[in-house]
Amino acid sequence: MGLKPATNPEVEAATIELTIDGTRVTAKDGVSLYDVISMTGKIIPAMCYHYTFDPFGSCGMCLVMQEGKKAPVRSCTAKATAGMIIRTEGEDLFLARKKAVEKHLSVHPLDCPVCDADGHCELQDMAFEHGVTNLPNAKQKFIPEDTRSLVLDFNMNRCIACAECINVCKDVLMIDALQFMKKGGFNQVVPKGDVPLQCEFCGDCLAVCPVGAITNKFSKYLYKPWQMKKTATTCNYCGDGCQLYLETKDEDVIRITSHLSWKNKWGDRAETAKGHGGLCVRGRFGFEYIDSATRLQQPLVREGDRLVEKPWLEVIDLVAGRLAEIKRRYGSGAIAGLITARCTNEEAYLFQKLMRVVLGSNHLDSSARYGHLNFVRAMKRAVGIGRSLNTWEDFTKAKAILLIGSNLTETNPLTSVRIKEAIRVYKAQVVTFDSAITNMAKLASHPFLITPGTEGLVLDGLVKTVIERDLIDEEAVGQYPAAFEALKEAVSRLSLDQLSSQTGVSVESFQEIAEIFAEAPRSIIVCAEGLVRRADGYRNVLKLVDLAWLTGKLGRPGCGVNTVTEEPNEQGVVDMGAAPEFLPGLAPFDDPTARERFEKVWGASLPSPGEGRSLLEILEGCKSGAIKALYVLGENPLATLPASAEVRSALERLEWLVVQDPFLTETGRMAHVVLPACTYAEKDGTFTNLEGRVLHIRQALDPKGESLPDWHIMTALANALDYPWEYQSVSDVQAEIRKLVPGYYNLGQPRKAEPVLDDYWSGGYVHEVAERYAVTSVARDQARPFSLQMGQVLTHSGKLSTQAPGLMKIAPNTGRLHMHPEDMEKLGIQDGDKVRITSERGSLQLGVEPDQSVAPGTCFFPEHFNEPPVKDLIAVSVDPVTGVPAFKQCWVSIERA
Amino acid sequence: MSVGAVTKKILQAALFQEIWEAMKVTFKHMFHRPITFQYPREQRVIPDAHRGALGLLRYDDGRERCVGCDLCEAACPSRCIKVISAEDRERPLQRYAAEFYIDITKCVFCGYCVEACPVNALAMTKMYEFSTHDKRALLFDKKKLYEIGERHLEDGKKYLYAHNQEQDVQESREYRYYFPQSVLQPTQPPPKHLS
Questions:
Q1: Domain limit, last residue, from A234, A261, A285
Q2: Do A127 and A169 sit in the same domain of this protein?
Q3: Residue A559's domain is classified under what CATH number?
């Protein structure tokens, strides 16, 4: 359209004046007239307009009268120019708009009573508003419904060709999966190439469709909009923390809708920098597990080799009794606990309080240990802030973005939309380093495919290049000359040529990237599972901090080092102290002043400093017999860790294993007692997302069966153990957290925090840096040429999403290894053939399928599925500093079976 | 009191005047057609517009009229209707009521649901005798409603006619929605009523 929004920071538009309905208005030159009018607060009907993308101009509703023109003009596609005199109201305009509505209605099927959009339809509203009662020349299209897609049905009889779906897909999401096609005499929206829809299935087209032309397959005909209770809550799939509406009818979850909708079509484009309000496939279509029949509804107690249903009263008594007995007999160090990061902040807080105060044990850990703690520990050590430094707005407005080991589109789809907006609107340069051909790499200006497992070496190369090419920021570095000297000394031993041959990134590329990163006014780094979940994750995050420090990007607005999280509350469980090294508020567990403060408030003494096992140490303790009882809250180590971690034998040795989960997991099947917990839809609480924003989840349903919220169960347990906790609701827990961690809730905004460099850069930095940049030689076993990588896929999140039938329908477990077609050709294997894959841990036979997103020389298997048990091929390496287990990559050989 | 009046009173008392007066009414009714009738042996004639038990109707070819649009549920002031709709697997795009409940104990017989129905699937009948020993039997489900509709089809049609909702077939098509049939092939001709 050539009409760019006034909010584009790159466009310095002149200010103009025009008159709208007799009022003088100032606006930016070249902006759509419709935007200018809607900014004054006047609302003109428009069916094809949405503020998130450029005006399209097909509905013919936004008519206004411009002085000097005879006919009304479409305000959305008209540019605002100086001196325009505009009239937006009047009988003539009303009649012209009515005519436009009649035009749309005359080819509309008028099947409102059976349409899912009935009562939530813009065309219906417009017909009502304009009093359209009879249509002289109505005709029907008789287009068969396109039901080929797995998630959406396209009923083109109802389409008004507003192209909102096409525009949102192309402009906002940069997926471009839909198009117009002349078919059967009508312009129809079809998936690109008129094949079954195959896209990211984010469903934003469904959200913006103002009529019922695109409908949700999972809730088709199940509802009318007015019948549902709408609860605003937070998605519990990934760390993005998207806000969504959970729509329920009686006891059923009917559908999930987003803030992005045709109803919210007026807004300031600048606001989309904080998120466009859409959802991803998991958030929108992965809701069916909430009221699934496989949910646990009764506490289960082991009797022989069976789990038998028992009433709550008896079970709480039993669990508390056994825990008290074990504590008495073996001491409190014999009890350990694990919590999942899908629990709320309040529950994580109660969990650590239960473990530390009631059971007196510091052996507690969360699923943030699988990687996020690498980042938290490194950032806490280096800059004193144990979380990401930037918000989504910073992501969007950055000029240079370094994505390392981050397959954002698959892991955190809505964060990737921020990067896409940075590329599209703010013209950011994006550098990606990954050992897979990611979606982000396809959009990035500088995509690099690196040798698997060499993320750390790439960072070595970048740091060295920055120093060699003198791209350092004198001001930042000048404050700590000793540290800089030590760093210079450390990297002097590295050879760029060698790093280049090891990683596959040329020396020139290193230079180019270092220049882009150092010279951009706003540069951010995003690292994800490919870095923090692999070996040396802690060290590599510190290298990222070094890179940011050298180029002066630490502490400067809009710059920083960030990570994304897989589970919704990985940040929150660490903040709440569900880790042996931290008390709530990331206070070190060994810090005497913090300990004193917490002991005073809790009125109990904490376990002695220095005590406390992390995840793998707990499992080690179970195996050696040091730990006798394990309280597992939503975690499932048996299905997550590879066989080499020997989780099964560790759990078998336990005297008392209590699992608390909404579903009967693999770990739950081994438990002595299984307590039924609620999902996020049945309880109140908060999640802390990857930006550090604390977001509310709200109860939409009554707990299913006899399941209870986790905080409720923990309070009952504490009371049964003679600790009179008096929490009546989540807000009681929140009040206590507010006292202990002041400012944590901060009205849903990330807490302001300035990086503090002094402690580290003038302290331990000099001693650590030499070891960090030690020359490493990558010893490659020639017999195992392929890198096996396990990671997340877009449609799934952890093991939870495998309980959602809708997501399993979209992405079932094929049980096949993903390989690059070239590699398959070289090995002479066809799609579906069986191969034998061998690692140092064993070998496995499974099918193969081609996948263009897998780099040559690598193969991929989704980590969400254990059938076949590909994860068991990988050995576990534990980070010496943070205790984070790395088990997502190994070298294998592949041959035809 | 005058002498004449006293004399008249005495005379009336002697002749049992009041009894004769009363008997006059009795004797008059002896030759009058009885006003009461012997319910339940005799049934009252009920007007067509009578709002009795609700029934679900079918088209003449046996198809269910109801498209499960939930509009009756929305119109119901006493919230006694519950519709659970679904898509007919055999006929794509065809919505139908998988379950349909009317709690007749809550029903206030206002007839709004019939008014709201876009396909005239609901009609009120002349049936009003549904007393039972088991209150649960008064939660009419889909099967029961179709039974009522079948048994009282003529009443239902008359009701719709009386309430100006279904004049005759031709008019009803103009007056009411007639939903597009599920389109299976792109070249399928439009249905007869629209061509």
A1: A285
A2: yes
A3: 3.40.228.10
The single residue listed with the structure tokens 């269910």 is B64
Token pair listed for A138:
């109505």
Contact A142 B69 (CB under 8 A): no
**Tokens of residue A348, six digits:** 């994580």
- Least Cα separation, residue B33 to chain A (angstroms): 53
Q: Phi first, then psi: give them for residue A850, nearest 5 degrees.
A: -75, 145
Chain B contacts of A110, Cβ < 8 Å?
Answer: 177
Cα(B54)–Cα(A834) distance, rounded to whole angstroms? 63
A224 to B86: CB separation less than 8 angstroms, yes or no: no
Contact A155 B177 (CB under 8 A): no
Q: How far is CA A421 from CA A54, A266, A802, in A?
A: 13, 19, 30
Test B190 with A142 for CB contact under 8 angstroms: yes
Residue A113 has its nearest CB partner, among B67, B184, B194, at B67
Chain B residue whose CA is closest to A183: B186
Residue B171 has pLDDT above 90, yes or no: no
Same domain? A320 vs A433:
no
| pTM for this model (two decimals) | 0.92
Contacts of B186 in chain A (CB under 8 A): 142-144, 183-184
Could you tell me if A418 and A174 are in contact, meaning their C-beta atoms sit under 8 angstroms apart? no
Name residue A657's amino acid: L
Of A111, A140, A226, the CB nearest to B74: A226
Q: State which CATH number among 3.30.300.30, 3.10.129.10, 3.30.70.3270, 3.30.70.100 fits the domain covering B54-175.
A: 3.30.70.3270
Nearest-by-CA chain A residue for B88? A221
Give the tokens for residue B122: 């609901």
Q: What single DSSP character describes residue B195?
A: -
Mean pLDDT by groups of 10 residues along chain A of 897 residues: 47 83 89 90 92 90 93 92 92 95 91 91 95 83 88 93 95 94 89 92 96 94 93 95 94 94 89 92 95 94 95 96 96 95 96 96 95 96 93 94 94 96 92 94 95 93 95 92 94 93 94 95 94 93 95 92 95 96 94 95 92 94 95 95 92 96 95 96 95 94 95 96 94 95 86 87 90 82 90 93 94 94 93 93 94 94 93 94 94 91
Same domain, A430 and A555: yes
CB–CB of A221 and B87 under 8 A? yes
DSSP letter (8 states) at residue A251: T
What residue numbers bound the domain in which A311 lies? 300-368+570-655+702-727
Count of domains observed in chain A:
5
CB atoms within 10 A of CB A433: 27
Does A457 map to a domain? yes
- Domain co-membership, A251 together with A156: yes
d(CA A284, CA A274): 19
CB-nearest to B184 from A118, A144, A226 is A144
Of A140, A144, A227, Cβ closest to residue B70: A227
CB contact under 8 A, A113 and B92: no
What is the β-pairing status of strands A243-249 and A252-258? antiparallel
- Interface check for A845 against chain B (CB to CB < 8 A): the answer is no
Q: Does A220 touch chain B (CB under 8 A)?
A: yes
Collapse the DSSP code of A123 into the 3-class scheme (helix H, G, I; strand E, B; otherwise coil) and give the result: helix
CATH code, domain carrying A79:
3.10.20.740
Q: Domain limits of chain B?
A: 54-175
Residues 6+ apart with CB under 8 A from A749: A693
Let me know the angle formed at the C-alpha of A861 by A859 and A864, rounded to the nearest 5 degrees: 165
Q: Is residue A751 part of a domain?
A: no
- A598 in the same domain as A458: no
Cα–Cα dist A833/A847, whole Å: 5
CATH of the domain at A277: 3.30.70.20
B180–A140: do the CB atoms touch at under 8 Å? Answer: yes
